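#structure-requests
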Amino acid sequence: MPTASVSAQVASFIAKFDRTNASLIRSCRSAMRKRLPTALELVYDNYNFFVIGYSSTERASDCVVSLACGANGVSLSFYFGATLPDPDGVLLGSGNQNRFVRLESARTLAEPAVERLIAAALAQAKTPMPDRGKTRTIVKSISAKQRPRRVAR
């Protein structure tokens, strides 16, 4: 039996969310694809989050930024965010490595402070994004058990 196309798989992952978050995920994904047109999209439908990572290679460790999507909203996650300059104080989180910015809308991605963080993350990446090519989406993992993608009512 043939497997679903990658785009159909991603659409099915997003369909698990309520209408508001699904729309936010789609608009943020579109904005990130425009911002990083040569990046690979690494998709993980994991236990805690649905994640779309933007990477220069198929290795998760080369992800520069990711959209981390849960029932409570969408965040832009910086894999090495703890090392980024953040003079505007927009990064959230206190872990040893990861930091994130909550995305109220896709417009948040274009705010100057967020754009500076994305540029800094790209500049410090060990493997730079390719100069040419176009986005390709790769489904890396799907967890059989997942937290609810919608807020319980």
